[in-house]
Model the fold of this input.
Amino acid sequence: MLVVAIDRESLATLGPWPWPRDRIAALLDRLHGAAAIATDILFEGPDRAAPATLALRLAESLPPPEADALRRRAATLPDHDATLATALAAAPVAIGFLLAPEATPPPAAPGGFALLGSPAGLAPLAAPGAATAWPALVAAAPGHGAASLEGGTVRSVPLVVRVGEEWRPGLVLEALRLALGGSTPLLAEGPELRLRGVVLPLDPGLSIRLHPGPALPSVSAAALLEGRIPAGAIHGHVVLLGGTAPELGALRDSGFAPLVPGIRLQAEALAQAMTLWLPRRPAWLPGAEIAAAAALGLLGAAAGAALPPLALAGFALAALFAVPIGVLALLSGTMLLADPLLPLAALLAPAAAAALAAFIATRASRARLVARFAQSLPPALVTRIAREPGLVRIGGEARRISFVFTDIAGFTGLVERSGPAALIALLDAYIAGAAEIIARHGGTLDKVVGDALHVMFGAPLDQPGHERAAVACGMELAAWGQDFARRHAEAGFGITRVGIATGIAIVGDVGGGRVLDYTAHGDAVNLAARLEQANKIFGTTVLLDGETAAAQSGDGFRCLGRLAARGRAAAVDVYAPWPPGIEVPAEARAAWDAGLAALLAEDADAARAAFSLVAGTLPEDAPTLFQLDRLNRGFSSISVDQRGG
Done:
């Protein structure tokens, strides 16, 4: 196939358009040996550039004698239309006509056209009438086909058109007919077009859907007229002649390029017809696409429900490639032009909906989780939970946790003495300051019960070294409480007592419906509460159990003895910090240990002597005074019963 282009080079060399028709005839003569020639040039009316036409036009402006002489002379001048008609008759040429909105008789069909069966369901490009070439040229040309293209973006080229009630071949079909020897086209049910030895299956639009392949060979009309094109490039080929220069105004928007000359679109369609590359959409294909989309929708829904997010993303990515590849495979194997968008949307939409639902659920769960802990955790931990909500297992788990319980001394009397507004303001200020301390040490404020604070370390997230963090927090809370009590002594605000214990506890959400509480249950929880209360016995502000004390570094803590706590079968060792801000001599520390050893041996005299030495160094040390008082009251055991004794 060859395209002879009336391009910018041709216009610059041979003059502006329209050319005299003898020049077109010369082009056709140069195409001798072509299997068929088709042109979309509409030769409407006589040649206005012919010498005879110009002479007759001039005669109209002359006096009668000169006009008659010029008319006689014009009869002897060359007739370009006759020259072109001779060239058309001497070659297998198909000229074009255009569909028109005016109702006019259908154009001639030199090769005929046969319709087999009912045209119901067929929807070719149609118009009430047509604009045709000069009658002498129509009569001379072996072929006459529609060169009209669809409006808007051109995605197909018609093989058959309807003019009024008559069916006529398109320019591509006429070129193919002439190249195959001139047999009459037959439109049969299917639909399909039958020519000599060729069957073209089509869709109801009776057009060729453009699917451009490699660039088609093209030569300039000027180069052809100047003899620069070898005969081998023409002989046996189907040639399409038409304008490609922008000045000719024949450029159309197509599905594969914005500005394509109409003759090139015709050439693309003819190339596809010659290679039987005819993508089509039969009437049943949309229904099949809907059925396939429904099946794929079920698959997408199942994938969305069953696959985790990462696997679902892989499924969606695979679908993005698999569906278009499947559509291309179908086109290559059967010429069926399926739409990939509907099946792809049906496959991905349920998966995307499931992913969106999972995302919304995750965000909601994350929001609930953050809201759950925002008031009781440090901001850094809340941020980490928001980023990795899976770290928190609120359904219940066993953890080794350190607990800090605090209470305000004399709070019941404070409530009785204070007005509601003053009490709430005072308590708010106290809890706000305590909460800052807890957050700074990484604790979780589990509960606020009146004046009491219940704090966890090591939950809901793992917290290495939580025993040391709990003790540091507890001691700072005690110091903060003493300072707060000093500043609000007139209101009767008491000091803060702290109990700290470590052990295995069950943590998780407790409750149901509208009542949910992330809390802890276990022996260590109860022990921390008992230790807080035991401060009243020992005269201390901070007490911790032996497991917590064992995790501390340095020698800042001393054992006070054993406590038989309420609700516990076995007594526990209790510890307290040495008086803060005081350098305790080694002799006093050794005397304290000796006193405990004497209590363990129930040697009251030795214990009294040892604690008396400590009292000499630390005369206001409450634990020492407590032990001496017990000895004076006849108690010589290392164990202290919280229930009295």
Observations:
- The chain has 21 helices and 27 strands.
- The first strand starts at residue 2 and ends at 6.
